[in-house]
Amino acid sequence: MKKTITIIMISWVMMFGCNPSNKKDSSNESIAKMDSAITEVKPKKVDKTPVVETDIVNKSTKTPEGRCDISVILQTSESIENLTNEDIYKFLFTFSEDCKNNIEFGEFSNEVLFEVLLRYPLEISNNLKKDSIYQDIILNEIANPIMEMQSADEIINNVNSLEIPEQTKQDVISSYKISIGYK
Q1: Sign of the alpha-carbon torsion through 71, 73, 75, 77
Q2: I need a labelling partner for 179 at 20 to 30 A (CA). Which of 34, 54, 77, 152 fits?
Q3: Which domain of life is it from (predicted)?
Protein backbone atom coordinates (compact mmCIF):
# COMPACT_ATOMS: atom_id res chain seq x y z
CA MET A 1 0.00 0.00 0.00
CA LYS A 2 2.85 2.41 0.89
CA LYS A 3 4.59 1.58 -2.38
CA THR A 4 1.45 2.42 -4.32
CA ILE A 5 1.10 5.80 -2.59
CA THR A 6 4.80 6.57 -3.15
CA ILE A 7 4.52 5.74 -6.86
CA ILE A 8 1.45 7.93 -7.18
CA MET A 9 3.18 10.86 -5.44
CA ILE A 10 6.31 10.53 -7.60
CA SER A 11 4.14 10.40 -10.71
CA TRP A 12 2.28 13.47 -9.54
CA VAL A 13 5.50 15.42 -8.89
CA MET A 14 6.86 14.38 -12.28
CA MET A 15 3.68 15.40 -14.10
CA PHE A 16 3.45 18.81 -12.47
CA GLY A 17 7.15 19.49 -12.04
CA CYS A 18 8.19 18.49 -15.54
CA ASN A 19 5.31 20.19 -17.31
CA PRO A 20 6.85 23.02 -19.36
CA SER A 21 3.65 25.00 -19.58
CA ASN A 22 2.22 25.72 -16.16
CA LYS A 23 -0.93 27.30 -17.46
CA LYS A 24 -4.16 26.85 -15.51
CA ASP A 25 -5.88 25.00 -18.38
CA SER A 26 -3.13 22.44 -18.75
CA SER A 27 -2.89 22.03 -14.98
CA ASN A 28 -6.60 21.22 -14.92
CA GLU A 29 -5.95 18.60 -17.61
CA SER A 30 -3.06 17.26 -15.59
CA ILE A 31 -5.21 17.03 -12.49
CA ALA A 32 -7.84 15.14 -14.48
CA LYS A 33 -5.14 12.77 -15.77
CA MET A 34 -3.82 12.38 -12.27
CA ASP A 35 -7.32 11.59 -10.92
CA SER A 36 -7.79 8.90 -13.56
CA ALA A 37 -4.31 7.52 -12.82
CA ILE A 38 -5.09 7.36 -9.10
CA THR A 39 -8.39 5.65 -9.82
CA GLU A 40 -6.64 3.04 -11.91
CA VAL A 41 -3.83 2.46 -9.38
CA LYS A 42 -6.03 2.11 -6.30
CA PRO A 43 -5.62 -1.37 -4.89
CA LYS A 44 -8.73 -3.49 -5.02
CA LYS A 45 -10.19 -4.78 -1.82
CA VAL A 46 -9.51 -8.51 -1.59
CA ASP A 47 -12.42 -10.72 -0.61
CA LYS A 48 -11.05 -13.45 1.62
CA THR A 49 -14.24 -15.49 1.53
CA PRO A 50 -13.42 -18.99 0.28
CA VAL A 51 -14.86 -19.75 -3.11
CA VAL A 52 -16.43 -23.17 -3.57
CA GLU A 53 -16.77 -24.48 -7.08
CA THR A 54 -20.35 -25.70 -6.78
CA ASP A 55 -20.48 -27.00 -10.33
CA ILE A 56 -17.60 -29.34 -9.65
CA VAL A 57 -19.09 -30.49 -6.34
CA ASN A 58 -22.51 -31.09 -7.87
CA LYS A 59 -21.10 -33.01 -10.81
CA SER A 60 -19.34 -35.46 -8.55
CA THR A 61 -22.37 -36.10 -6.34
CA LYS A 62 -25.17 -35.56 -8.80
CA THR A 63 -27.65 -38.38 -9.25
CA PRO A 64 -29.86 -38.95 -12.27
CA GLU A 65 -33.00 -36.86 -12.18
CA GLY A 66 -35.75 -38.46 -10.12
CA ARG A 67 -33.42 -40.86 -8.33
CA CYS A 68 -32.77 -40.39 -4.59
CA ASP A 69 -35.37 -37.60 -4.50
CA ILE A 70 -36.34 -37.29 -0.86
CA SER A 71 -39.18 -34.88 -1.73
CA VAL A 72 -40.93 -37.74 -3.59
CA ILE A 73 -40.50 -39.96 -0.51
CA LEU A 74 -41.97 -37.21 1.68
CA GLN A 75 -44.90 -36.70 -0.69
CA THR A 76 -45.53 -40.46 -0.74
CA SER A 77 -45.47 -40.61 3.05
CA GLU A 78 -47.84 -37.67 3.40
CA SER A 79 -50.31 -39.11 0.87
CA ILE A 80 -50.00 -42.76 1.97
CA GLU A 81 -53.79 -43.21 2.21
CA ASN A 82 -54.51 -41.99 -1.34
CA LEU A 83 -51.64 -43.05 -3.59
CA THR A 84 -52.23 -43.56 -7.28
CA ASN A 85 -50.36 -46.05 -9.43
CA GLU A 86 -48.35 -43.11 -10.81
CA ASP A 87 -47.44 -42.00 -7.26
CA ILE A 88 -46.19 -45.50 -6.48
CA TYR A 89 -44.19 -45.60 -9.71
CA LYS A 90 -42.53 -42.25 -8.88
CA PHE A 91 -41.77 -43.53 -5.39
CA LEU A 92 -40.22 -46.78 -6.62
CA PHE A 93 -38.33 -44.89 -9.33
CA THR A 94 -36.40 -42.94 -6.67
CA PHE A 95 -34.56 -46.10 -5.55
CA SER A 96 -31.14 -46.38 -7.14
CA GLU A 97 -27.61 -47.57 -6.49
CA ASP A 98 -26.72 -43.85 -6.49
CA CYS A 99 -28.57 -43.47 -3.17
CA LYS A 100 -26.48 -45.90 -1.14
CA ASN A 101 -24.37 -43.13 0.45
CA ASN A 102 -27.37 -40.96 1.28
CA ILE A 103 -28.23 -42.15 4.80
CA GLU A 104 -31.21 -39.85 5.28
CA PHE A 105 -32.75 -41.02 2.01
CA GLY A 106 -32.00 -44.67 2.80
CA GLU A 107 -33.66 -44.69 6.19
CA PHE A 108 -36.69 -42.67 5.20
CA SER A 109 -37.29 -44.48 1.90
CA ASN A 110 -36.98 -47.88 3.61
CA GLU A 111 -39.57 -46.92 6.20
CA VAL A 112 -42.00 -45.59 3.58
CA LEU A 113 -41.41 -48.63 1.34
CA PHE A 114 -42.86 -50.89 4.03
CA GLU A 115 -45.85 -48.60 4.52
CA VAL A 116 -46.53 -48.70 0.78
CA LEU A 117 -45.98 -52.47 0.65
CA LEU A 118 -48.53 -52.98 3.41
CA ARG A 119 -51.17 -50.89 1.67
CA TYR A 120 -50.45 -51.42 -2.04
CA PRO A 121 -48.81 -54.82 -2.68
CA LEU A 122 -50.46 -55.31 -6.08
CA GLU A 123 -49.39 -51.86 -7.32
CA ILE A 124 -45.83 -52.51 -6.15
CA SER A 125 -45.85 -55.85 -7.95
CA ASN A 126 -47.07 -54.27 -11.18
CA ASN A 127 -44.53 -51.44 -11.02
CA LEU A 128 -41.62 -53.76 -10.22
CA LYS A 129 -42.04 -55.25 -13.71
CA LYS A 130 -41.19 -51.93 -15.41
CA ASP A 131 -37.70 -51.60 -16.90
CA SER A 132 -36.96 -48.24 -15.27
CA ILE A 133 -37.45 -49.65 -11.76
CA TYR A 134 -34.46 -51.23 -10.05
CA GLN A 135 -36.19 -54.37 -8.81
CA ASP A 136 -33.08 -55.82 -7.14
CA ILE A 137 -32.51 -52.68 -5.06
CA ILE A 138 -36.13 -52.56 -3.90
CA LEU A 139 -36.21 -56.27 -3.05
CA ASN A 140 -32.95 -55.81 -1.14
CA GLU A 141 -34.58 -52.97 0.83
CA ILE A 142 -37.50 -55.25 1.70
CA ALA A 143 -35.09 -57.99 2.77
CA ASN A 144 -33.23 -55.53 5.03
CA PRO A 145 -35.66 -53.35 6.94
CA ILE A 146 -34.18 -50.52 8.95
CA MET A 147 -37.04 -50.35 11.43
CA GLU A 148 -38.55 -53.21 13.38
CA MET A 149 -41.96 -54.06 12.00
CA GLN A 150 -44.92 -55.12 14.11
CA SER A 151 -46.68 -56.55 11.07
CA ALA A 152 -44.05 -59.08 9.93
CA ASP A 153 -46.67 -61.66 8.92
CA GLU A 154 -48.48 -59.14 6.77
CA ILE A 155 -45.21 -58.08 5.11
CA ILE A 156 -44.37 -61.73 4.39
CA ASN A 157 -47.83 -62.31 2.91
CA ASN A 158 -47.49 -59.21 0.75
CA VAL A 159 -44.06 -60.28 -0.51
CA ASN A 160 -45.57 -63.68 -1.32
CA SER A 161 -48.26 -61.91 -3.36
CA LEU A 162 -45.69 -60.09 -5.51
CA GLU A 163 -45.50 -61.30 -9.08
CA ILE A 164 -41.80 -62.07 -9.07
CA PRO A 165 -39.96 -65.38 -9.51
CA GLU A 166 -40.62 -67.83 -6.66
CA GLN A 167 -36.92 -68.17 -5.80
CA THR A 168 -36.63 -64.37 -5.50
CA LYS A 169 -39.65 -64.30 -3.17
CA GLN A 170 -38.12 -66.96 -0.96
CA ASP A 171 -34.75 -65.19 -0.89
CA VAL A 172 -36.37 -61.87 0.06
CA ILE A 173 -38.58 -63.47 2.72
CA SER A 174 -35.69 -65.48 4.14
CA SER A 175 -33.47 -62.39 4.37
CA TYR A 176 -36.34 -60.39 5.84
CA LYS A 177 -37.00 -63.02 8.53
CA ILE A 178 -33.33 -63.18 9.47
CA SER A 179 -32.98 -59.40 9.63
CA ILE A 180 -35.96 -59.01 11.99
CA GLY A 181 -35.26 -62.15 14.01
CA TYR A 182 -38.52 -63.75 12.86
CA LYS A 183 -39.16 -67.28 14.13
Answers
A1: negative
A2: 77
A3: Bacteria
Does residue 51 lie in a domain region?
no
pLDDT in tens, 64-111: 788 999 999 999 999 999 999 999 999 999 999 999 899 999 999 999
For residue 52, tell me if it sits in a domain: no
Output the CA–CA distances (angstroms, integers) from residue 147 to 21, 26, 142, 173, in the order listed. Answer: 91, 86, 11, 16
Q: Specify the amino acid at residue 84.
A: T
Q: Does a structural domain hold residue 9? A: yes
Q: Based on the domain organization, do 98 and 19 belong to the same domain?
A: no
CB 95 within 8 A of CB 109: yes
Whole-angstrom distance, CA of residue 177 vs CA of residue 183: 7
Domain membership flag for residue 13: yes
Number of structural domains the chain divides into: 2
Exposed (0-12), middle (13-18) or buried (19+): which is 18, by Cβ within 10 Å?
exposed
* Domain span holding position 13: 2-41
